[in-house]
Amino acid sequence: MTYAVSNKRGPKRVLMYSHDTMGLGHLRRCRAIAHSLVERQSDLSVLILSGSPIIGSFDFRTRVDFVRIPGVIKLRNGDYTSLNLHLDIEDTLNLRSSIIKHTADAFDPDLFIVDKEPWGLRGEVRPTLEMLKERGTPLVLGLRDVMDEPEKLLPEWERKNAVEALRDVYDDIWVYGLQSVCDPYSGMPMPDSVQAKTSYTGYLKRKVPSHVHPIMTTDLEDPFILVTAGGGGDGDGLMDWVLKAYEADADLPYRALLVLGPFMPAELQNDFMERAAELDRVDVITFDSRIESLMARAAGIVAMGGYNTFCEILSFDKRALIVPRTEPRMEQYIRAARAEELGITAMLVDDGERDPDVMSEALRRLPSQPTPSETMESGLLDGLEEVNRLAQNWLYGQGPTAKVAVLRREA
Question: How far apart are CA 323 and CA 352, in angstroms?
């Protein structure tokens, strides 16, 4: 097997596939990487394929654009359904797959980066991967630091033939974290060839956007803690618990700004806004596409602990309390437990009771916590620099190192 490096003339093109149903994680990770790539390389353009219904709410740098494919959502029973179209899920997935393939065919990328799902949602990227591999386009799979507990992830990957894709299809695998902190392969038997082509980049450092919405400078009083549930689709437990603490304790150290998330059901949003309106020290907004500005200003962060939020806590060096979800995946819990073990953040597990005194005590401890920079290891936030180095190897350099290439041929 040979491993081609792009040698097409003219400006380079990177295509990214963002595995999106409901939530912001995949899109925000891909957007951060895309912006970093074009910032460092003036002849590069990036096109993102995404099913996110709110992708148009985000700002994109020059030479970064997106193609919005029809959206799908995951139901509580694990099934998927079309978000807006009156089509059954198979017809929707076929339409998405066709758009993905035709876009890749027309865009003709020099590098294809797939986020998280090796074959895409329900295999929708397989035809595109096969087409681009036949052309010799380098194929990269990007994985977050934690996928799920091995007992759940192993049968899921076996069912999806994921290891086959990692072993036989992808040229490189980039883990957006450090192996010493969290390893997505933990407890999973992986072929040596997969291990050899895997690079641990470090976490993806974020920065404050250059343009800030007026709410950031006029409507907020410092100091405040930022309470964020990411997309918000399953963030009602966190918001309820924090509100209970402020309802029971008027003397908590900071004001609170709750960012509910765009995917939180409207009835829940209305309920939380009504409760917050009765409190002098709690403000609520639904969504802000430039939440990095809020995080940079906050005295501390209370969050569910998804990948992007964790990167932002590290990047802005904020004391944080993580209240991770444990369903349908243990991803957030595994990350939060490891971060607490390393002294980077604190963790509080939602037991369903949501005792306001327990949350109040945790919020009172927040100002005395160490900041992440006091405990985190060297290289923890080198992810974007390493991603750029790896991408440039494929776009302008010699592809994999000689050692990796030999291991791949042996596999």
Answer: 12
